[in-house]
Amino acid sequence: MKADIHPKYETVVFRDLASGVSFLTRSTISSSKTIEWEDGNTYPVFDVEISSESHPFYTGKQRIMDAAGRVERFNARYKGFGA
User: What pTM did the predictor assign?
Assistant: First the structure.
C-alpha cells in the first residue's frame, strides 16, 4: 500500500436529525463539529437528514402524501398545455 494517498479512517458519530438517534462507527468522512460520546471521548459528528432509524423502508411507517393536492396542482399548472 502506498503511503499518504489514502483518506484518514477514523471513528465518527453520525447523528440522524429526523429521529435524534446517533451512531458511532468508522468512516473516512471528516467534520469540524465534535460531540462527546457516551464513553467520554470526543468524536467528529456528521449530521444526516435520514438514516435507517427514520427511513420509512426500515421503520415500516409510511408517510401519507397528499396525492389529491398534487394532482390538482399538476392539472392547474398544465391546464393550457397542448391546447
Answer: 0.63
Task: Name all contacts of 32-41 with Cβ < 8 Å and 24+ positions apart.
Answer: 37/13
* pLDDT tens column, 2-42: 888 998 899 999 998 888 889 999 999 989 999 999 999 99
- What three-state secondary structure class fits 77? helix
All three cell numbers of 6, joined, read 489514502
What pLDDT, on the 0 to 100 scale, is given for residue 71? Answer: 81
Amino acid letter, residue 11: T
Rg (CA), the chain: 21
* Residues 4-23 as b or e (16 or more Cβ within 10 Å = b): eeeeeeeebbbbbeeeeebe
CB 16 within 8 A of CB 51: yes
